[in-house]
Amino acid sequence: MTVVDIHAHVFPEIGRAESRRLTGSDDGPWLRTTDGPDTGMMMTGSAEYRPVRRTLWDPAERVADLDRLGVDIQVLSSTPLLFGYGLDSGRAVDWCRTINSRLLAYGAHAPHRLAPLCQVPLQDTEAACAMLSEAMRQGFHGVHIGNHLGDRDLDHGALAEFLTHCAEEDAAVLVHPWDLPTGRRYSRYMLAWLAGMASETHLTILSLILSGAFERLPASLRLLFAHGGGSFPYLLGRADNAWHRRDLVRADSPHPPSHYTRRFSVDSAVFDPGALRLLVDVMGAERVLLGSDHPFPLGEEDIGRLVRESTLTPEETEAVLGGNAVRFFGLTPLLKEAVR
Question: Residue 53 in contact with residue 94, Cβ under 8 Å?
Answer without folding.
Answer: no
